[in-house]
Design brief:
Elements: H1 4-14, E1 22-27, H2 32-41, E2 45-46, H3 59-63, H4 69-79, E3 83-91, H5 96-103, E4 108-113, H6 116-135, H7 146-157, H8 182-191, E5 197-201, H9 202-207, H10 209-219, H11 243-253
Parallel strand pairs: 1-3, 1-4, 2-3, 4-5
Length: about 260
């Protein structure tokens, strides 16, 4: 019996799996799903087998999740061009740029980033919603609130200590650390030219969707196209946190 990597290689070669032309990425709870869905609506874009392509394992595993050359040729013959890519809330993983550039050094990167304070609270609310069936157990009855978690994280990381662990995200620390974008962007620009990267603000995506999507299509060299308006994806109930917590977070994220 051949080893698994050889089986995967044969599959990739058989179906002519292609290299991604773009990646639509961002921080968790920043609109990455909405942005990817708008990009994938374009008729010139071939859909991957999964929106969130894993860069773990090996290149054959990754390529097996991409469209086949046959699928790309079919779209190209019908619309005059064909692109493919993937979306992933991978920010602020410092290893992503090096892994991605090893496979697709010429692809374009669309990065959507959100106000880190609002992002942190949305992240926590998302985790709470996903974990509420467990939070009802008495084991969790003393689990810290958002305000307490932020103060724990602030106290610890400002003294070089460990952070809290989020239930979702890029697994790069806690709710505050998921909003520290600068080191990720430095790594991204170390592996990709600036003209290969488009940085978007979540607030613009939410408030001026048509304009931002048109800008994204243009950046990807896609023909003009009007996508269908999509409803808010992966929304969570609104909530509130203390004013002092917001002030402390603003101070933490203040540029040096």
């Amino acid at each position: 019996k051949p080893p698994q990597w050889r089986v995967e290689l044969r599959k990739a070669l058989k179906f002519e799996r292609v290299v991604p032309d773009f990646a639509s990425i961002g921080a968790v709870r920043s609109g990455t799903t909405s942005l990817s869905d708008y990009i994938f609506q374009h008729p010139c874009v071939a859909l991957p087998l999964a929106k969130e392509i894993s860069l773990g394992g090996n290149v054959y595993h990754m390529s097996s999740q991409m469209p086949s050359g046959k699928a790309m040729r079919k779209i190209n013959s019908r619309y005059g061009m064909a692109l493919t890519g993937f979306g992933f809330p991978v920010v602020p993983s410092l290893t992503f740029p090096s892994l991605a550039s090893a496979v697709a050094p010429d692809m374009k990167i669309v990065v959507v980033l959100r106000d880190p304070v609002e992002r942190a609270y949305a992240h926590w609310r998302w985790d709470e919603m996903r974990m509420r069936k467990f939070r009802s157990d008495k084991l969790w009855r003393k689990y810290p609130s958002f305000d307490d978690i932020i103060r724990l994280e602030l106290s610890s990381i400002t003294h070089g200590g460990p952070s809290v662990s989020t239930d979702t995200g890029a697994m790069c620390g806690g709710y505050l650390q998921h909003g520290v974008y600068v080191d990720f962007m430095k790594q991204l620009y170390a592996h990709y030219k600036r003209q290969q990267v488009l940085v978007l603000k979540s607030e613009d995506l939410f408030e001026n969707t048509a304009q931002v999507i048109a800008q994204t299509y243009k950046f990807l060299n896609l023909p003009e196209y009007t996508p269908a308006k999509i409803t808010t994806i992966n929304s969570v109930p609104a909530g509130y946190y203390q004013y002092n917590t917001a002030a402390e977070m603003r101070e933490f994220f203040k540029p040096l």
